[in-house]
Amino acid sequence: MNMENKNIDRRGFIGRLGGLGLAGVAMSAFPWIEACSPKTTEETGRDYTRIGFIGTGSRGCFHLENLQKIHNARVVALCDNYEPHLTEGSSYFPQARLYSDYRKLLEDPEVDSVVIATPLYCHFQMAMDAMDAGKNVYCEKAMAYTIEQCHQLYMKHKQTGKIFFIGQQRLFDPKYLKAMEGVVKGEYGPVVNVRNYWFRNNDWRRPVPSPDLERHINWRLYREYSRGLMTELACHQIQNGTWATGMLPEKVMGSGSIIYWKDGREVFDNVCCIYTFPNGVNMTFESVISNAHFGMGEQILCKDAMVDLPGSRIYYENPPKKSGIEQMIAEIEQGIFSNSAFAGTSWSAENGSKDPGISIMPEADGDGTLEIMQAFCNSAISGVMPPRILEEAYYGTVFCLLGDEALLQQKTMTLDKEFYI
Amino acid sequence: MFKDSVITARQKTRELIILLVCFAIAFFTNVGATIAYSGHWTEIFTQIGFVVVITGILYVLQWVVRIIAYLIKKIFS
């Protein structure tokens, strides 16, 4: 991102996403984009929303940095129960009032909206209390610790009418929107598979200044506070399947265990889940944190092409033919450099395509985090909740949690009817 | 330090003819490849960049051959 567009205002927001040229079928697939447009907020006569920020850890500070670029946001209060984090957070907004108890922040009459960037186990109570206190809420994903809590939060939003966003930033990532546009329109044929994976090679630990802070700081590793890889990583990706297929998974099965990081953690360090949609299409989520070779990937496999979402590339099954001279040169190269066998092979590996693919949006930057925060501020000012945005986030979290239940119970799980919204 | 040298009109003509022959070989290689790989006839023009590069490569190669021939001739004369 260059300096000219570092500060985005309401017009800048729609300019960034409007520039995608989404229309027709695509806009009906991404209705939240249009609903977040500045036109709606301009009609309210209010210019900004006053934000109380809860949880100023690493993710929180990333949001605070973004909020500095958003003209219609005023961060008026900060809260964290860990002093070093609160101090760091206040460096972004030195004028903001500081709290160590989020309930005190919620009592602050100057706060219209709250951003919750705390550990997973805190999301439910904080978001419930915030909506009860009449505040709009932007809560980091995953939505909550249990499916029941997610449902209660959704119902609370319906009951209070307060704006409620979950930080599913891919919904606002220009690369994803552009790629999904082609998928939704059926330009690449029907969706036949969805692959999500996230491979890392580190212990996922953060430095702890004293042993009594271990669980407080490394909360991701303990069941009491986190659902591990399913809520910290899968919740970014599971939404891709419902988005691409336009359906909700029917069932999920999976397996997980601790295979390498046997350091007292309680959450799995490797998981593999298979989600099945009603039409039989499977979606996988796989994560291992002791080998980073494959990195992170989100791939929509259609009959005629594979769409690489984070890489923003399309790989056609039958890529455009190369010119005759290029084919001839390639054959000569192959003749010179390939190994010659003594005898013909009776079997050869079905190697993957070497097609370099076609870039969808080479100019795209960012990951949608700034845009979704801007959209939240627009909605908080206008009081208009964008359609389907919360439902997408709800199911995104709910199916991650269901996947975790499948891992824990070692059986195929289906979502109870009462949790369909 | 350096001596003045003269490139005769005959030498210039010879080099131009060699370059033209290289271009012709490259051009007809492209035409042949387009036919052999069932390419579109427009490739004869759209792939002209490849033709130019192949022309250059052929011209350099013939110079390598000529230099080697010259050196061998000099050794044995």
Characteristic terms for this protein:
heterodimer; A: 421 residues; alpha/beta; Rossmann fold; Dihydrodipicolinate Reductase, domain 2; 8-stranded mixed beta sheet; 18% strand; globular; disordered N terminus; B: 77 residues; mainly alpha; 3 helices; elongated
Describe this structure in words.
The complex is a heterodimer of chains A (421) and B (77). Chain A has 421 residues and is of the alpha/beta class. Chain A folds into 2 domains: 30-171 and 366-389, Rossmann fold (3-Layer(aba) Sandwich), CATH 3.40.50.720; 181-365 and 400-419, Dihydrodipicolinate Reductase, domain 2 (2-Layer Sandwich). Helices cover 37% and strands 18% of the residues of chain A. Chain A has an 8-stranded mixed β-sheet with strand order 8-9-10-7-11-12-13-14, covered by helices on one side. A 6-stranded parallel β-sheet of chain A has the order 3-2-1-4-5-6, with helices on both faces. In chain A, helix 8 (120-132) runs parallel beside helix 9, helix 9 runs antiparallel to helix 16 and helix 12 (229-237) crosses helix 16. The two termini of chain A are 38 Å apart. Chain B is an all-alpha fold and 77 residues long. Chain B has 3 helices and no strands. The longest helix of chain B is centred in the C-terminal third of the chain and has 29 residues, at 48-76.
Shape of chain A: globular
The helix fraction of chain B, in percent, is over 70%
CATH class of the largest domain in chain A: Alpha Beta
Number of strands of chain B: 0
Mean model confidence by pLDDT of chain A: 89
Major sheet strand order of chain A = 8-9-10-7-11-12-13-14
CATH fold naming of the largest domain in chain A: Dihydrodipicolinate Reductase, domain 2
Major sheet of chain A: size, sense and barrel closure? 8 strands, mixed
